[in-house]
Request: fold
Amino acid sequence: LIVVKAFSKAGTTSVDLMLDALTWIADHVKADVVNLSFGTRKADPESPLALAAARLAERGMIVVAAAGNEGQVPGTILSPASSPEVLAIAAYDPFNGVIAPFSSMGPSRGADKPDFAAVGVSVCAAFPTYTVELEKMIKVRRVMGCYACLSGTSMATAVATGIVALHVEARWPAHRVTEDYLAEYALPVQLTKGWLAGHGLLTAP
Reply:
């Protein structure tokens, strides 16, 4: 597990810093799966971030990125998830059995997006205790001090990345995990296939 830090403790960064991080991964890391739990409101699949993420995919990495939290409005998939080479992840609400209303919607320059959905509502994970500025920006519900329950496509993307990694491990080393292969393990989400849920809810092998 390799963690590349490109954000400040306040939860902020710049496109230049994110590009530096993606370039470092391309030049120094031979990863199977890359988690990109971030995005910019420039939904262009030809944006620098989208192209940098596509470069990782061209090197054989499975790149998983957050679709965005812009709401169910057509054409709101963020970059780098907007890249055709990247798996864009929507947020699924397991409590109501639907795609979360904040989850961004495709298409992306005519391409079907998002690609898959994963649980992204009230996901509990490790959360640092020094993020006072960040907690002013987002709604944080702390659990036992060092954990928090958060919602968003960034959380869904982390969940999806873990599921994809399990598929890579299960098929190692003979077979590559592709979008079509993952689609075989996806579950339909009500009637929201396509521009809201993609192939559906990712499941483990």
Summary: The chain has five helices and eight strands. The chain has a mean pLDDT of 88. Strands lie at 33-36, 62-66, 87-93, 98-99, 116-119, 123-126, 141-143, 147-150. The helical segments are 15-28, 48-58, 132-137, 153-171, 179-183.
